[in-house]
Design brief:
Length: 307
């Protein structure tokens, strides 16, 4: 068996994209559609509580940057903020930045008045290149332009990713292996693969290869897959939300996006990635046995699990 037998392009891309973060536009500090093992952004408010500081001890493939609101560093909470920074070995311009997200912060704690470097940070490890970053929205009513400083050029947009989207390289790859196997567990997976470009022989070979690879990695524990609503008692793929069997043809069938509900990825299909336990602070839930394929939220009537 060999992996040289290729999946249909749309399916291959869908599985590959599960290792990427969600979309983000230029008005936010996050990177758009990058690998889940990219540099992690940690809100300083999260680590104000000593019980949450374990997030700083994570072995992130590409490090982390803590974002400190200027109110905390220059306002009444300054002494406590400095104490936390010392305890956590945070150094401005190295592993943390002052983050301006509101206009009043820029007015009350202007970076020039508080001695912050005037150079824009663009690196994500080592010397970041500056001490602060800003994403302050413009206002039409008051004719005030937006203030975007740091990580805002084409080659370096966004400082990093949301911490709860993180997964290391090994976990990303294992998740992809398992998600392909779950595709092949759809009741009509072979028919769909053949309909969308594979020969019958290639589809059978790729299915065997996928199951064998997943089995070797310990990713085909049927009891665990059933308990997590990823497959049913027939060992066929189901939607974790509505529990209906999934047709593999949905991986290739585009859906019409509702007006005002457009998303960054315009290739939305009927079947999308679900996190069984949702992404949230304090947990890293992009991992095998917590991922399944489900109906697009417009069909199921919920978007809580859809990513």
């Amino acid at each position: 068996m060999t992996k040289n037998v290729k999946l249909p392009l749309l399916l291959s891309r869908k599985i590959y994209k599960t290792g990427q973060t969600r979309g983000a536009d230029d008005d936010v500090i996050y990177q758009n559609r990058v690998s889940r093992n990219s540099t992690v952004l940690i809100p300083f408010e999260l680590i104000m509580s000593e019980g949450n500081r374990g997030v700083l001890r994570g072995r992130y493939d590409n490090g982390y940057i803590v974002l400190i609101p200027p109110d905390y560093l220059f306002g009444e909470a300054r002494n406590e903020t400095i104490s936390v920074m010392n305890d956590c070995e945070l150094t401005l311009g190295v592993n943390c930045l002052v983050f301006y997200s509101q206009r009043y912060q820029y007015v009350n704690y202007n970076p020039n008045a508080f001695g912050l470097r005037s150079t824009q940070p663009m690196a994500r490890t080592g010397d970041l290149g500056g001490d602060y970053v800003s994403r302050v929205s413009g206002t039409t009513s008051e004719s005030m332009g937006k203030i975007s400083f740091g990580y805002n050029i084409t080659a370096s947009k966004g400082a990093g990713i949301r911490i709860f989207e993180y997964a290391d390289k090994e976990t990303i790859e294992k998740a992809r292996i398992q998600l392909e196997a779950i595709y092949w567990m759809c009741h009509d997976s072979l028919d769909a693969a053949i309909q969308y470009g594979m020969s019958a022989e290639d589809a059978e070979e790729r299915k065997r290869f996928s199951f064998n690879e997943a089995e070797q990695q310990g990713l085909l524990n049927e009891i665990e897959l059933i308990n997590n609503r990823i497959i049913d008692s027939d060992k066929e793929t189901v939607c974790p939300l509505c529990l209906a069997k999934i047709s593999a043809k949905g991986f290739f069938s585009k859906v019409e996006q509702q007006e005002f509900r457009r998303v960054h990825d315009l290739t939305v299909t009927e079947i999308n990635l679900f996190h069984i336990n949702e992404l949230r602070y304090g947990a890293f839930n992009h991992k095998p046995y917590n991922l399944g394929w489900g109906h697009h939220h417009l069909q199921c009537g919920s978007e809580r699990f859809w990513h």
